[in-house]
What does this fold into?
Amino acid sequence: MSAELSSKITVSRSPRTRRLAGIRERVRRSVINIMYRVGLVRFVERVASRFELRRSTGSRLPSVRRRITPKFAILCYHRVGTDGVPLFSHLKPNEFESQMRYLRKHYRVASLDQLCRELQEARLVEPTVAVTFDDGYRDLYTQAFPALQKYRIPATIYLIGRCMETGEPPWYDRIFVAVKNAPGNTLEVQLDRLRRFELGPAEVRLQIAWQIVCYLRTISDPSRRAWCAKFEQVLPVQPAELAERMLTWEQVREMQKGGVLFGAHTMSHPAVSQLDPSDFDEELLRSRRLLEERLGVPVTDFAYPFGKHSDTNSVAEEFLVRAGYRSAVTTVEGYNQPTTNPFRLRRIQIDDSVSMASFALTLGRLFLESPDPLKSTDGMDDLSMQVQQRRCEV
Ligand SMILES: [Zn+2]
It folds into this structure.
């Protein structure tokens, strides 16, 4: 938190800055679309299947070398569909289906199970992609499952135990809905100190809610719970706003029969780094046992809520290992290879506004890069930063 930050946070940029950013973004998208149409993206993919770029200090240009290790990408989705709780609700089902078709046509697609096995085997295979979803929203059954079946994509869905049991969305969705519906022009909330937000259109409110959630990821989980309870007294949420948003066990079992795998995503979606180790049994172990009881199969894969470096820690990682988990995924960007810690697997978040050309180029570039090229910023450390995108890791 920067000391000189004004007490009045302005989440929207000036009109001129927004206009320039809009122009830059349009140019960027146009270039990517042209690259896609003339076949340059496919060329990148074909090169990446055999070669990789290596960047060395002191040289501006990367060198090209033959790829000698397998690379595995894990895609991270949250929701598919265009309604409901505001986050991740703009990926149209037909766009998602196009992405699955593209994966099936141009990549080697593996289940998380196969990916974990092959990471251990370390033999050289084609660039491989696995598909995962976090949180267990209902549209995964109504919107995503048909496409997964159609293109035989063996996806993994990470479920939040208490949301499955109660049918209620996780705590952060209550904040998104409360801020979306907040009356008046301003909202004052006590975060690291008293913050005064200027409410505006839906997009601005979404950014404000995201800033609040980011702050709540930095305080102890009991403090976060107390904050949420107090906040809800001030801005209560109508139950109808959050009804029928999560998967039911019946839907989960039907997807399980259709080849979907399931992993644990805690009981209540805390930032694991903010848990007291005495809570690990409940959040990290009970969530797994609940899934095993309900699904009748071993559950050995875990997804860290929010998933950035600052949301994880080595104490929790050691607990997951001792508890018998096989893997844990983060939202730190990058691909995985045999040297990657299986309890810190990286993923690529798929933005809900991404075009087919951007989707294809993201994957092609990812596989073309040499090991560990990608940044792994947390993107949430300072409330003073602009909330630059809607790509929230929840
Ligand atoms: Zn989550």
Q: What stands out?
A: The first strand starts at residue 8 and ends at 9. The two ends are 22 Å apart (CA to CA). Confidence is low (pLDDT under 50) at residues 1-11, 373-393.
